[in-house]
Amino acid sequence: MPTTKPKNLSFDFRSGQPIPAWVREVIDTHLAIEAEDARSAGSLGFLARALIIATMPYKDPKTEVFKRQNGDFRLRIIAGYEGGIPYGIYPRLLMSWVSTEAVRKQTPVIQLGDCLRAFLHDVMDLRSSGGGARGSGSRVTEQMKRLFGSLITAHYAGTQQQQGFLLRNVLIADELQLDDAVLTGLWTPQQAHETGRWQSQVRLSSGFFEECINNPVPIDLRAYKALRGSPLAMDVYTWLTYRMSYTQRRSRPIRWEPLMLQFGSDYGTETAQAVRDFKKAFLKALKLVLVVYPQACVEVRDVGVVLLPSRPHVSPLPVQRDLF
């Protein structure tokens, strides 16, 4: 079977339709990454491993409990905030910021101030509240409350001991302090005398903080940001760079059905049509991911995908190998 190679990629948009701006950004990001690596560019970020192996939903599941499965790994998210389960691009980007701050500063207490404001502006491209309850600022605030109020269980049910997965009914955050003044300051520039006036913060639970600092998965925040037009592409990117950090030989075919359980919450039950729909969406996302991460060697087969040894997108930190 042929290996998917970035030089053969093309985007099959309908004739006469312009390429979306965020797709152009993906292509521009590829050129920037080729010119300068993540560490040199100051775009080195991290994600908690548990939320890469199995991911958050793409759309509002409108339920109090959400489950993902990846082989013997199970992820369960329980809503701890009346708004519901976190979903979409905002909690993914927020989680990358929280995980990165925890790793960089080695503290579970993350201050919400100038650093978060810069992240919202530079990585999320949010410059203003967007106005009203449906504005981008309001949506981020809502997702922040959903994310930091969630209760998660990351459980490995295999016969081998999976060191590191000790998340059993663990809150992502023990405490979230937010008030209207702080939220307003996140979207609008502060006056010099107001800087540091508000000290809002999130305190990560000890279990989740330990997962962040003991098993951080390095990513390039430029790539993660560029793919924000597709939450599925964001997840495929982090999964691939994580898998390639320990893939030393050609993998067995990873079938579409288990991939759908891991990534495809919006495709319903495992009917033949649902699997076909998921396969189509996954391959579209993979094509985008390979633009920013062309070193990933992936074979696409009728039954699934095969991973070949590849250089990780960001060099891994000296942490333990994994089984997934």
UniProtKB/TrEMBL annotation:
InterPro entries, per the entry: RepA_C
Pfam families xrefs: RepA_C
Domain of life: Bacteria
Name this polypeptide is given: Pirin
